[in-house]
Write a structure and sequence with these properties.
By secondary structure, the chain is of the alpha+beta class. It has a single domain, classed as Beta Barrel (OB fold (Dihydrolipoamide Acetyltransferase, E2P)). The chain contains five helices and eight strands, in the order ααββββαβββαβα. Strands 1-2-3-6-5 form a five-stranded mixed barrel. It has a two-stranded antiparallel ribbon with strand order 4-8. β2 and β3 form a beta hairpin.
Length: about 160
């Protein structure tokens, strides 16, 4: 049986910090808060697919795919477009690439989206579930998206099957 240790001193980080260290932490803490509240980094998890060209990611952000336009609710091929987008990204980690603009007029982040090596914006167009549509100044991949759309039209995929 061991006897209690007399005069035991409990160490704490606070007792070992110099006044300069405490001031530095107080000054840096707001910077950490600001960084934590910034726009999402280049990789995020998809929480919900809104439609064929919009997703919700962790942190509550909505992301609108740049350079494409998918059918809206009630339009021809809407459900197929939404389902194709779900199959590509739902629940997955995606890489987000910004062009020029940060957000659209609705407050959605404007991004090119990738799952591994798959360029999601282009894949939606290739499968015929969206058309290529330029939204200047964000036109970095517009020539490529236009070429992919031409291929989808020629093979009568998705929205192009009845046109």
């Amino acid at each position: 049986m061991s006897a209690p240790i007399a005069n035991t001193k409990i160490c704490s980080v606070e007792s070992r910090m110099s006044p300069k260290s405490r001031i530095a932490i107080l000054l840096l803490f707001p910077a950490f808060l600001i960084l934590a509240c910034q726009e999402p980094a280049g990789v995020a998890k998809v929480i919900q697919v809104i439609d064929g060209d919009t997703i919700a990611i962790e942190g509550g952000y909505h992301v609108r795919y740049i350079g494409i336009d998918a059918p809206e609710k009630g339009e021809f091929c809407y459900l197929e477009s939404e389902q194709a987008n779900k199959a590509l990204v739902e629940g997955k980690r995606v890489r987000l690439e910004k062009d020029i603009s940060e957000k659209d007029r609705y407050g959605r982040l404007l991004r090119y989206v990738y799952v591994d090596d798959t360029f999601v914006n282009a894949q939606m167009v290739r499968k015929g579930y969206a058309c290529a549509k330029a939204y200047p100044p964000d036109v970095k991949y517009q020539v490529y998206l236009g070429a992919v759309e031409k291929e989808a039209k020629q093979t009568r995929r998705g929205i192009w099957r009845e046109r």
